[in-house]
Amino acid sequence: MRKYLHIDLQDRSVETEELHGEAIIRVGRHYIAKTLLKRGVATVDPLSPENPLIFSAGPFAGTNFSNANRIYRFVLD
Question: Disulfide-capable partner of 23 in 6, 19, 49, 72 (CB 3.0 to 4.6 Å)?
Fold first, then answer.
């Protein structure tokens, strides 16, 4: 099980999403792309508050696998 937090700074709310099974394998860049498509941010102004800032750990983060401890981040610009 892996947890992801969705934090909204405007209304100070926090949502927790738990990933299980195959969803854990599809994290990192895949999770970022899926989240961006779900929110429809292709038309969002880069400097607007609706532009998400996403940090996502890869599937091997926390293991001894070589180069596994990268963090992916994305901002629409």
Answer: 19
Q: What is the distance between the terminal CA atoms of the chain, rounded to a whole angstrom?
A: 32
The DSSP string of the chain is -EEEEEEETTTTEEEEEEE-THHHHS-THHHHHHHHHHHTGGGS-TTSTTS-EEEEE-TTTTSSSTT---EEEEE--
Length, in residues, of the chain: 77
pLDDT digits (tens, 9 = 90+) for 41-65: 878 888 888 888 888 777 666 666 6
